[in-house]
Write a structure and sequence with these properties.
The protein is mainly α. It has a single domain, classed as 23S rRNA-intervening sequence (de novo design (two linked rop proteins), Up-down Bundle), CATH 1.20.1440. The protein is 80% helix and 0% strand. The chain has 4 helices and no strands. The two termini are 13 Å apart.
């Protein structure tokens, strides 16, 4: 099986796409700050899942990459809270994104326990 078959990879990939599109609505002065950080953090989740899966270095190696992906989920939570508190992210969008990142983080944890 390839990493593209993993549900958590696909959910995190779709979420990263959504974040990239959302960042286009943010003020241009945040281009090298919040926008850049959000793009890196959101994309690092599917990238770490894919890289860890592709290395096929066993459970320990895969879990190391999954752990980094989980860390990026937490990073996104802080960034989303920060944007909401700045008034740059509406409450309903904040809630939707936070719920999706919690779901992805739980799926990553489940994968870590199963592999």
């Amino acid at each position: 099986m390839r990493f593209e078959k993993l549900e958590v990879y696909n959910k995190s990939y779709d979420l990263a796409l959504s974040i990239y599109k959302y960042t286009e609505t943010l003020p241009n002065e945040e281009k090298y700050g919040i926008i850049s950080q959000m793009k890196r953090a959101s994309l690092s989740i599917p990238l770490n899942i894919a890289e860890g899966y592709g290395k096929q270095g066993g459970k320990t190696e895969f879990n190391r990459f999954l752990s980094m992906a989980k860390g990026s989920c937490s990073e996104m939570a802080v960034l989303l809270d920060f944007l909401k508190d700045l008034g740059l992210l509406e409450e309903n969008h904040h809630k939707k994104y936070r719920e999706k990142y919690v779901e992805v983080e739980k799926m990553i944890y489940g994968l870590m326990q199963s592999k």
